[in-house]
Amino acid sequence: MINITETIGTKNIDVFIGRGALNKLSEIKENKVIIKSKALKIDLSTILGDQRFLMIEIQDGEEAKSLDSVIEIIQRMINYGIRRNHYVVALGGGTVTDVAGFIASIYMRGLKLINIPTTLLGMVDASIGGKNAINFRSVKNVIGTFYQPSIIIDDLNFLDTLPQEELRKGLAEVIKYALTLDYSLYTFLTEHKDAILSKDPEVMEDLVSRSVSDKLSIVKEDEKEEKGIRIVLNFGHTIGHAIEAGSDFKVPHGYAISVGMVCEAKMFEELGYAEEGVVEDTIWLLSQYDLPIDVSKLSYAIDINKALGALRLDKKSKDDVVIMPTPVRIGEWKRVEVPIETLEGFVQQCLRKEV
Ligand SMILES: NC(=O)c1ccc[n+]([C@@H]2O[C@H](COP(=O)([O-])OP(=O)(O)OC[C@H]3O[C@@H](n4cnc5c(N)ncnc54)[C@H](O)[C@@H]3O)[C@@H](O)[C@H]2O)c1
Q: Any idea which of 43-47, 275-279, 335-339 has the lowest mean pLDDT?
């Protein structure tokens, strides 16, 4: 098992990665509420023995990320008697860690949080970094807080049951780290494709810990997105988010950012910010993992007007420019300002035809 520790702000974070890492939960003797995805079949009594805990199962997926579901969970926590020294444990994919993280941050002004992600996306992205959010009506991720977990447990046994499609969605974020932050991860992804797709335990342990370290190293420098460093995690997300919005959020996030990374890389290469070859390398790696590289590979039509509307509302835009991260070459990045008109031109080009 691999143990990574990091201090973010004033909080020490312990990450445990490996098969059987879930046993770490038995070391937390305090009372806890476990917010768990209903879809997960797991019996925690073998790990927790006669420890007391409140189990709340939620239907995962975007519906779980609602105020209604937050209110219902909080009511049950009050009824049970969850107090300030108790823990909130999130057990599920990114939707569950988002809901549980939000609740942990507001209940009695903050309870200790343990994230136990069960999807690859959760392990490499959603459970790390302290961002959480729920949706409000049709607006995604609009209510949330920054709140760091104390412990993250990445038990790779959960990946055994994870559908291949969910694995690939998580791999899109791993590829993002490789393209912008980590040349050695790029090489690793090229050399271990078959082992990764067949979830080889040792290779997955390596893949998850490299990704966790990459994300933590950025969050450590800029926890609350105030210094222009954490923005690197948005590579592919500006156009990716426009694609999601343009499909009424039918295109899954991982696929939208996959196409988004290609479109953005193409724009940055044409503007001279990214070295020649970045687009080719981006397309090549995404294709290795059968991730979409243009809109023709997506199963839903994209409404360009809706996509452009979302782009204009993008929270990262300032005056008439959008601040974006570009890979300069594989594994290195910088921040650039792109005039909104230039970006819109590229988005139209990219969403209308194959890249
Ligand atoms: N807070 C952040 O920093 C952050 C970052 C990235 C994504 N997110 C959020 O994460 C969410 C997406 O997360 P996700 O992709 O994990 O989605 P998810 O939680 O909806 O899980 C995807 C699917 O996988 C199933 N599943 C989960 N674990 C499984 C397992 N071990 N075996 C079999 N099936 C399993 C779930 O039941 C679900 O059907 C989005 O809401 C997104 O906004 C948050």
A: 43-47
Residue type present at position 265: A
Ligand 1 atom closest to the Cα of residue 129 is 3
Q: Return the amino acid letter for 289.
A: Y
Active site annotation includes 329: no
Ligand 1 pocket test, candidate residues 70, 98, 249, most atoms within 8 A of CB: 98
CA of 96 to the centre of ligand 1 (A): 7
Q: Residues, the chain, total? A: 355
List of domains in the chain: 2-161 (3.40.50.1970), 164-352 (1.20.1090.10)
Does residue 234 have an active-site annotation? Answer: yes
How far is 282 from 179, CA to CA, in rounded Å? 7
Integer Cα distance of 207 and 218 in angstroms: 17
Q: Which of 57, 225, 275, 332 is catalytic?
A: 225
Catalytic residue check, 215: yes
**In a 3-state reduction of DSSP, which class is residue 44?**
coil
Tokens found for residue 307: 């996509």
Helix (H) or strand (E) holding 269: helix 253-270
Determine the Cα–Cα distance for residues 3 and 18; give it in Å rounded to an integer: 9
Helix (H/G/I), strand (E/B), else coil: 141: strand
Tens digit of each residue's pLDDT (9 = 90 or more) over 137-193: 888 899 999 999 999 999 999 999 999 999 999 999 999 999 999 999 999 999 999
